[in-house]
User: Which sequence fits this backbone?
């Protein structure tokens, strides 16, 4: 992947941030990134694009503000939250 890289972490709503938790059987298929439900932020897009390049099926999750915090992405059927370690003023576009 080319372009800027932002410090981010993956976290599961069930807890933990182990990247190996995303181990799934891709069956040799090419990954994909679907933003049909909503446009991703730059950080979410960078993570989603990286995961798709690794063969994962990545889907942007719809935001439902009245339901509280939800996952940003669904990766191979699993909810994934993208977190940034940068302060708001340090984030691109912030």
Assistant:
């Amino acid at each position: 992947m080319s372009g800027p890289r932002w410090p981010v972490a993956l976290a599961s709503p069930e807890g933990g941030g182990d990247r190996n938790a995303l181990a799934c059987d891709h069956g040799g298929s090419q990954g994909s990134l679907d933003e049909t439900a909503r446009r991703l932020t730059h950080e979410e897009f960078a993570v989603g694009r990286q995961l798709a390049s690794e063969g994962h099926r990545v889907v942007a999750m719809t935001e439902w503000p009245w339901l509280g915090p939800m996952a940003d992405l669904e990766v191979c059927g699993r909810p994934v939250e993208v977190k940034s370690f940068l302060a708001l003023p340090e984030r691109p576009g912030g």
